């Protein structure tokens, strides 16, 4: 069996996705024309997407987290105030949501889409850097290579049916040993930078404004020398 490896979804210096790569997630995918799928399993997908214009969606076909990298999205869900999602903010669109999505030219985003399952949690949940954070559990002492960090988080969205969570996390600097990543995780760095060391010793630095996807089971060590804040999407089981 091939050992999974992390996938860089976006570098701060990257060009926007191609205007029409045509990698959709299904016949009802409203973003099909602009998707670049970098990782995919039977249950989920991650990558980047370019989108502009307006689309009305009667029932969003899956649960998807969008992290805006440039431009701005406006999401209008019936019965709720319109949400504006600017650069480096994120939004989770639940399966079954009826909404209008608008974007100016030049808008593109990183995404994690949960495509399997039938659970419906209609609505749009915004994730912004100014949300309050609460102390959270640091890595276990046996995996740390130094002092235990001070960690905080705010879990904004949870779908227990598919073991999916999304929110904000930050931490003081720390280092830990390489181990198989316990969760499938998309992370978008809001502040600071982290070195992720892969099984072959390759060090991938993920800096402010950049997005990476780490598959479940991928060997990965963490070293951060400055305060790090990130948007995360994690899933405990990915097919």
From TrEMBL:
* (S)-ureidoglycine aminohydrolase cupin domain span: 164-232
Superkingdom as given in the UniProt entry: Bacteria
**Can you say what this protein is called?**
Cupin domain-containing protein
Q: Tell me any Pfam family this protein matches.
A: Cupin_3
């Amino acid at each position: 069996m091939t050992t999974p490896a992390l996938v860089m979804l976006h570098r701060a210096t990257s060009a926007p996705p191609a205007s029409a790569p045509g990698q959709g997630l299904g016949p009802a995918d409203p973003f099909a024309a602009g998707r670049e799928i970098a990782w995919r399993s039977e249950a989920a997908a991650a990558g980047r997407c370019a989108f502009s214009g307006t689309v009305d969606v009667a029932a969003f076909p899956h649960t998807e987290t969008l992290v805006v990298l440039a431009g701005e999205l406006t999401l209008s869900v019936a019965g709720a105030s319109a949400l504006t999602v600017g650069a480096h903010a994120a939004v989770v669109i639940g399966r079954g949501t009826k909404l209008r999505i608008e974007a100016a030219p030049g808008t593109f985003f990183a995404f994690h889409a949960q495509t399997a399952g039938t659970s419906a949690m209609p609505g749009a949940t915004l994730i912004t850097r100014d949300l309050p954070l609460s102390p959270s559990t640091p890595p276990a002492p046996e995996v740390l290579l130094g002092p235990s960090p001070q960690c905080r988080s705010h879990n904004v969205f949870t779908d227990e049916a598919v073991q999916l969570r999304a929110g904000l996390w930050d931490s003081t600097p720390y280092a830990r040993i390489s181990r198989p990543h316990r969760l499938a995780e998309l992370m978008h760095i809001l502040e600071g930078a982290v070195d992720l060391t892969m099984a072959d010793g390759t060090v991938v630095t993920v800096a402010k404004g950049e997005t990476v996807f780490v598959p479940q089971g991928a060997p990965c060590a963490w070293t951060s020398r400055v305060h790090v804040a990130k948007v995360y999407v994690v899933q405990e089981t990915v097919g």
